[in-house]
Write a structure and sequence with these properties.
Layout: E1 7-8, H1 20-33, H2 43-63, E2 71-74, H3 77-88, E3 94-98, H4 103-116, E4 119-123, H5 133-139, E5 144-150, H6 162-172, E6 177-181, H7 193-196, E7 200-204, E8 216-220, H8 260-272, H9 276-297, E9 302-304, E10 316-321, H10 326-337, E11 339-340, E12 342-344, H11 349-355, E13 363-367, H12 374-388
Parallel strand pairs: 1-11, 3-4, 3-5, 5-6, 6-7
Antiparallel strand pairs: 2-8, 7-8, 9-10, 10-13, 12-13
The structure holds pyridoxal-5'-phosphate.
């Protein structure tokens, strides 16, 4: 029996495959180094520390941070968001966020609303996930301390006018602290924290940056660091004689042994992003997205949840198949042709309410990566056509 090739179209959850250099870096760090970061004076430990410093430098460079020490390594995008939100907010603080957010924003905010009485306002988004500047500005007043907003929707791939939104929000409330969730944009779109004028930026390292799972980054503007308490306390490899948590960056937020192999993999992913191969991969991703869109449009009985301005999106597409449950379709796609997609609410329940897809259990999400091929897209479309055929 010939084995069917796996068609991975869940790159918005985590990118796969990774560049070969990423696998190699993880393995080399585990086998050839294996030492703890910032903990020893011997050569291998110093080398592990150097790898992490290089990775920090690459992240800082990628997001336009002035200082490497403004970048903290975490375990995931969720970990970065929780570190920022739980560390910053105090009882009775007023926060504005949007209906387009992921649960890794909504849940910590909801938790703080319940536990310490944080006041939470949720600005609606349109059905594609876009937030209007007018709605956002209306919800902000002189008491608003924090705005949490995503850059790109993980449901529709729509790109927010993030710079314009932040500028308008800060014009209304100059003291406002802004946290950007760049989970779906880091590595895909240019990001400059100074241009964005954001105070905090959270992202995973395992999606558009092509690092391994278990990596995340949090940027903190130097002026905000004192206002954010650490989430975790413990050994940092510095100031070990003092039982007080160091307040220096990045140690303040990096207690415990760092995941050196994964960070080495992330460093390889970040270096890959600067290569000609990655540039070609980006063009390929755009071509595959167009091909997928044309294919989806050619299938009867599908509803496409597309951004109105088709250029304002990355390679994420949400669709519904008439009268079929999203999980059922995803299951059939896998069983019939090993087409691997995400189905359901994609951890964005409020967005699905705005889209009118909440009650029916969400959508089927296809997300393309730099290594997706045109042949895979053609096959995925054929399989989708086949599994949605009985409806006609
Ligand atoms: C918009 C958004 N924010 C946050 C996250 C959480 O990232 P992680 O999966 O690394 O925890 C995701 C993950 O899909 C996301 O899409």
């Amino acid at each position: 029996m010939t084995e069917i090739e796996r068609i991975y179209l869940d790159n918005a959850a985590t990118s796969w495959p990774k560049p070969d250099s990423v696998y190699l870096a993880v393995e080399q760090t585990m086998r050839g180094n294996g030492a703890a970061v910032g903990r020893g004076v011997f050569g291998d430990s110093a080398q592990a520390t150097q790898i992490v410093q290089q990775a920090r430098h690459e992240v800082a460079h990628l997001i336009g941070a002035r200082s490497d020490s403004s970048v903290v390594f975490t375990n995931s995008g969720t970990d970065s968001l929780s570190t920022a939100i739980l560390g910053l907010l105090k009882p009775n603080d007023s926060v504005v966020t949007t209906a387009a957010e992921h649960n890794s924003v909504l849940r910590p905010l909801h938790h703080l609303q319940q536990v310490i009485g944080v006041e939470l306002k949720i600005v609606p988004c349109d059905e594609t996930g876009l937030v209007s500047t007018t709605d956002l500005v209306k919800s902000i007043d002189e008491n608003t301390r924090l705005l949490v907003i995503n850059h790109v929707s993980n449901v529709t791939g729509v790109v927010q006018s993030i710079q314009e939104l932040i500028a308008a929000a800060k014009a209304k409330q100059p003291e406002l602290i802004v946290l950007v969730d760049a989970a779906q944009s880091l590595g895909h779109l240019p990001i400059d924290v100074a241009e964005l004028s954001c105070d905090l930026l959270a992202a995973p390292g395992h999606k558009g940056s092509y690092g391994p799972l278990g990596t995340g980054i949090l940027y903190l503007h130097p002026d905000i660091v004192d206002q954010v308490a650490p989430l975790r306390f413990g050994g940092t490899g510095v100031s070990s004689g003092d039982i007080q948590q160091p307040m220096t960056m990045p140690e303040k937020f990096e207690s415990g042994n760092l995941n050196a192999p994964a960070i080495a993999g992330l460093l390889a992913g970040l270096k890959y992003l600067k290569t000609e191969q990655a540039k070609a991969g980006k063009e390929n991703l755009a071509r595959c997205s167009e091909l997928l869109l044309a294919g989806l449009r050619s299938i009867d009985g599908l509803t496409l949840h597309l951004p109105k301005l088709i250029d304002h999106r990355i390679g994420i597409f949400s669709v519904s198949v008439e009268s079929l449950d999203a999980h059922e379709v995803a299951n059939l796609l896998d069983l019939t042709g090993q087409v691997q997609v995400r189905s359901g609410l994609h951890c964005a329940p409020l967005h699905h309410r705005q889209m009118g897809t909440f009650e029916r259990g969400g959508t089927i999400r296809f997300s393309v990566g730099r290594f997706t091929t045109a042949t895979q897209i053609e096959r995925a479309v054929k399989v989708l056509q086949q599994v949605s055929q009985p409806l006609k």
